Amino acid sequence: MNRSTNINTRFIVVFFLSLYFLSAAPVWSDIEIRKRVERPGELQILLPYSREKRAVRLELSLFAGTCVSAIASWNPGDRNLSARILSRVKNDRELSNIYGQSPIAMGAAVDSDGLHEIVLEDARGGDTVLLTIQISWSEALKETAREIRNVREEAERIFYSSDTTQQNHLNRIEWISWPEGGTISRNELFGKGLTIRFEHELSALQFSQGIRLEIGLTGTQHGLTRYEEVLFTLKQSGKELSLKPSTTLFVPKNVPLRIYIDSELIRDFERAGLDLEGSGFKLPSGDGRAGGIFRSQFFLKD
Fold it and tell me: Whole-angstrom Cα distance, residue 55 to residue 81?
């Protein structure tokens, strides 16, 4: 009886000692603590003892334009921790980072709406650490950012609601009086001149600086062509522009002439917008966006 009692007593002692040592054994796996932060303020978080990496991930839902900052301190403070601000909506893009001993401070400007994280990591592990984290962001800035975003989205919706509507407000070249890459007679050039017709009226536009007529002459080296600017008179009526070169100009036969119309150099008093990108091979001109340069070339046949 006494022997059986001794065996049972030993078993109980061994069992409880095993439980004690197991509970006191070091943690060998990574520790990650997640917490949702709903408002600015101070947090205290206990990082338990571990032989592996320990991390705290604080989740914040922020609007674009908000400035967020964090000040972290810990005890004992002689160990190095890393801290980062991440944008979860941008695939954990890093907005700010710092590494050092207690205390540390960091901040970032948020450029997108959605979930963001403040992450503090202790890569080496060790004794228990008490973290104190002060988090702040500006509610006023958040509201302002929301208003700016709403105004921007509404403007984009109105402007891009229909590609057809947008293009209908742009003025394009629909016809030219000479064949692109072809030939015209000397009488046509100096008599009738060159005519360019647009889709809409040109009353709000001033073309004096935006059109350039050039003639190609034989260069000083064989096979090269030198282009020189040609003076011309310009008449503007309704949808049409008429260019007539100076009658005193001597132009040899079979020489190239080319025209450039640069939208950046044309004064547009009503902001109607010109869509000129392209050449005479494809009319009307343009690529659906305001701006561009229209280029065309032809030759004299006699």
Answer: 10
What letters, b where the CB count within 10 A reaches 16 and e where it falls short, cover 18-54? eeeeeeeeeeeeebeeeeebeeeeebebebeebeeeb
Give the span between the Cα atoms of 15 and 205, in whole angstroms.
Answer: 97
Rounded Cα distance between 253 and 155, Å, is 54
Coil, strand, or helix at residue 232? strand
* Distance, CA of 47 to CA of 34 (rounded, Å): 12
Give the gyration radius of the chain's Cα atoms: 38
Backbone angles phi, psi at 232, to 5 degrees: -150, 160
296 in Cβ contact with 258 (< 8 Å): yes
> pLDDT of 101-114, one tens digit each?
888 888 888 888 88
Structure tokens at 107: 């901040």
The residues near 266 (Cβ < 8 Å, ≥ 6 apart) are 205, 206, 207, 209, 210, 274
- The CATH-assigned architecture of domain 26-145 is Sandwich (2.60)
In whole angstroms, what is the distance from residue 30 CA to residue 53 CA?
Answer: 5
The ranges assigned to domains in the chain are 26-145, 167-300
- Which pLDDT band, with edges at 50, 70 and 90, does 122 fall under? confident
**Fold observed for domain 167-300:** Immunoglobulin-like (2.60.40)
21 versus 258: the higher-pLDDT residue is 258
